[in-house]
Amino acid sequence: MDLLINYILRILPAVIIIIIGSFLLRPNKSLRIIIYVLSFILLRDALTPASLWSLGITNGVPWIRLYLNHIFLIGMGFFSLIFVILLMLFDKENSKEVTLINRTKAVPGLLFSIIALIILVAPFIIVYGYSNVETRGGIVPEEYIISILFFSLFGNFLEEVLFRGYIYNFFRKKDNDIKAGIISGFVFCFFHIYLATTVTSIGTPLLLFTLWEGIICGIVGSKYGVIPSTIVHGGAIFLLTSGLI
Fold first, then answer.
1. Cβ-based neighbour number of residue 180 at 10 Å
2. pLDDT tens for each residue of 91-131
3. I want to staple 233 with a disulfide (CB 3.0 to 4.6 A). Which of 100, 156, 191, 200 is the partner?
4. Percent helix, percent strand, percent coil in the chain, to nearest 5
């Protein structure tokens, strides 16, 4: 609990500034998206100095492990889900354009998301085979697997709403669907620069991974919606953080 309290105290001043600033600025539709994304980056990147997750690199390939506490894992998942619900309810100007799932392609979308997930993690399956799991975060106890899955899916659901929902729709007004999806992948990578170069020292490997992940999720999201892209994104994070690959 000390780590969780430290995390809350660490982000609290910034959260207060964001709330007050948003109230004073009365941001328009586009500026609200920027505020949402920057707020998410704050909450995500602060996990590192608060020791609530660990990122490293082995043989040039990044790895990640989460703080193994059920309250933290499930709580963060619920927090992200609640945040999504609040966005959908109170920012309908942005949210009305978000396609959670293309109902006419729901089944193909879910099937394609599984294929995309396999493509996304395939390089890790190959490269991880040349290193011992102890050198990339260690074995994860089985009792935490379900909580990690919950965290991965719902935590990344919020991120996908932001990038494959709001940001994707912003670029879709200027470009075709696939191109807008790919651009959202580049923007996704862009917002990992601070994490890759300042918060951690992983650098290029982390940026390459997030670019690879972002483009794949962008293509899936552009064709089938946010939920299928969340399956890809959340599924990949689950496989990486659970040590199952």
1. 21
2. 999 999 999 999 899 999 999 999 999 999 999 999 998 88
3. 156
4. 75, 5, 20
